[in-house]
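RETRY 2/3 - previous attempt timed out on the joint model. Re-submitting the same 229-residue input unchanged.
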Amino acid sequence: AQSVAQPEDQVNVAEGNPLTVKCTYSVSGNPYLFWYVQYPNRGLQFLLKYITGDNLVKGSYGFEAEFNKSQTSFHLKKPSALVSDSALYFCAVRASGNTGKLIFGQGTTLQVKP
Amino acid sequence: DTGVSQDPRHKITKRGQNVTFRCDPISEHNRLYWYRQTLGQGPEFLTYFQNEAQLEKSRLLSDRFSAERPKGSFSTLEIQRTEQGDSAMYLCASSFRESTNEKLFFGSGTQLSVL
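RETRY 2/3 succeeded.
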């Protein structure tokens, strides 16, 4: 069965510093991986996805993610964090079969301090 | 460009009452998903439709839960005889079916509180 894990409940980083939010996955077959962000009282917003191709995927708001097959990881990164990046981040994997259904991790709260 | 719309935003009900939520997907999207999210957890899949056909239901979806998408456009999620454990954020998402490039667009959710 497809699954993702986010080992950190919370990540704290100072504004201007690089940030990393970790995600590891377990899949059978090709992994289709996603990152979503959730701001308070808002729905989930798509950030980026990995289907095939380059291991470094660029997404919205300056975020990128690095796919690492040998480590089964898909970490979210940003070179310089902003206070406005503070939110809840979810890693997700597409379920197997002909479906768009996503299976989400438990989420990581990112706190960026001025 | 209108996104996914959910109504109501908040619902407070007493245990044992029935509630119904509505989701209006992005107009050209043929797939519609319902998820449930509790505090501190990621969204959990409940069910999804392709056009008007309900193709999958999670084991989380007890007999008290029913979802419909009668004309392949909007969808409703009904919970009968609500229990306190049903308190959660109910999220709707829609997508356009493609082989690999499909991505889900989410609504803002309906927050259900069962007293």
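Residues 31 and 100 of chain B are 14 Å apart (CA to CA). Closing ticket.
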